[in-house]
Amino acid sequence: MRPSLNTLSTPLIEKILAESKRILAEVGFEVRGPELRERLLAHGLQLDANGERILFPEHVVDQAIADAPKKVTLYNRDGQPHAHLHDQNVHFTPASSGLKILDHRTGQTRLANTADFVEYVRLCDGLEHIAYPATAFSTNDDIEAQVSDAWRLYLCLTHSKRPVVSGAFTEHGVPRMAEMMALFRQDKADLIAKPMSIFTITATGNFRYGEDSCQNLLDCAEWGIPVEIVPVTLMGLIAPVTLVGATVFHTVDVLAGITMAQIIRPGTPVIFGGAPAAFHMKAATSPMLAIEALHLDIAYAAVGDYLGIPTQAYMALSDSKLVDAQAGAETFGSALLAGLAGINSVSGPGMLDYVLTFSLPKLVLDNDLCGQVLHLTREITPKDDLPTIDIVRELLEEDHLITSPHTLEHWPKELYLPDPVTDRLNRENWEQKGETTLMARATAEVEQRLANYKPIITDPAADAEMRRLILSGLNEQTVLPEIPPVKRKKAATDGRRRKRRRNK
């Protein structure tokens, strides 16, 4: 048994699903992608009385739920299983769609570039509690926007072997990116059998899928790329302000995406996801870390879990502008909720400011916070401590258990030792260490981990073909941005120099 969180009763989930299916059947969806629209009509779906919305009969939705895989396995670049998304297995991954970087060296927030993204992937590759990277923020400062998605995927594929959460930002971006990933498989069928990425498909609200989302969904299904259906449900603006009503709206959006994916290709891997927010009635903002939005996250995840479909949510992030107390509280609180709810893929670490700004120091802090959550949500089983009477007798005899065989055997796995970014020193030792702040410790950890990054080797032919695919999509730009070199390990080099001087 593992610690868990129950949000909705089974009867209430069933009522939410029944109402969602009713809306799909009687109101339907506006499908703006012409090719996907034709595929749905050819499948036998009908239009509403106005000829605008496509209706989804309940039996079609039920068949799609039955066809959707109950487990999504992600494979690394070498084709080895890396992450299993099912049941209550929890994986943390950085949030996506950022536009800027909070530069930890200058303290300034600015547009991100290729060098920033390369540092991010190299850092992420060594984080123990971040399961796989995401194409977390745009690099439009030095690459044309229409190929920025493919360029970021290229940087992920050439700096980490882990799978990646990605997605196309243009209507025809998926095929280019799929061809890039296929270079690491025998053929398209092998990529379908061993997917190495999750692509995000966003519902636009008001029961509508836009042109880009429709075409991306169609292309992903045909390439067998797992898709996370991510509605941006805004409570109080385009969805009910109440939890149950908002959950119904959210479920309708996700079920529409799941149904369309299964109509295109039955068995397409799908993930019941979302990025909800509450509409702030005074500030006119949409905080994703509002407690109501977090409640909606775990509510719709309960619906997805009831259906047996893997789940995703935007949690373990912060709306704060800085790595401060608010950022820590929002990140750990939402990560803990996600862990207890058993959400399979949690998008969030590293992100600030309404998913607009990414921070490398926050990413290393979040890695530690997520590690603590994963430690808490492990299965609870006796470990040589039932019966306990012998441990009691040993304590009374020795006055401590520090050197107890039971302690020596179990403490390495039972006691979580945080990274240096988390302060566990007493005040005297903290003062002797320079009275470092959280941001100073996190920044130092970023630099240390970047210095420890070990480059991976990419087949030159595959590298050249990926670059050719990206170059073919450029309009005015003729060369791709330069990749920054790997930083040398200063500490190790300086140590060797000191040793040589001593030897002389």
Topology at a glance:
Layout: H1 10-26, E1 30-31, H2 34-42, E2 46-47, E3 54-55, H3 58-67, E4 72-75, E5 81-85, E6 91-93, E7 100-102, E8 109-111, H4 114-125, H5 148-159, E9 164-166, H6 174-182, H7 188-193, E10 197-203, E11 208-209, H8 211-223, E12 227-231, E13 234-235, H9 243-264, E14 270-272, E15 277-278, H10 291-307, E16 312-314, H11 325-341, E17 345-347, E18 351-352, E19 357-358, H12 360-376, H13 389-398, H14 405-414, H15 427-432, H16 438-451, H17 460-471, H18 490-503
Parallel strand pairs: 1-11, 6-17, 7-19, 9-10, 10-12, 12-14, 13-15, 16-17
Antiparallel strand pairs: 2-3, 4-5, 7-8, 18-19
Describe the structure.
45% of the residues lie in helices and 12% in strands. The protein has 504 residues and is of the alpha/beta class. Among the domains are: 65-376, Alpha-Beta Barrel (TIM Barrel), CATH 3.20.20.480; 387-415, no CATH class. The chain has a 4-stranded mixed beta sheet with strand order 8-7-19-18. Strands 9-10-12-14 form a 4-stranded parallel beta sheet. Helix 5 runs parallel beside helix 6 (174-182), helix 9 packs across helix 10 and helix 12 packs across helix 16. The termini are far apart.
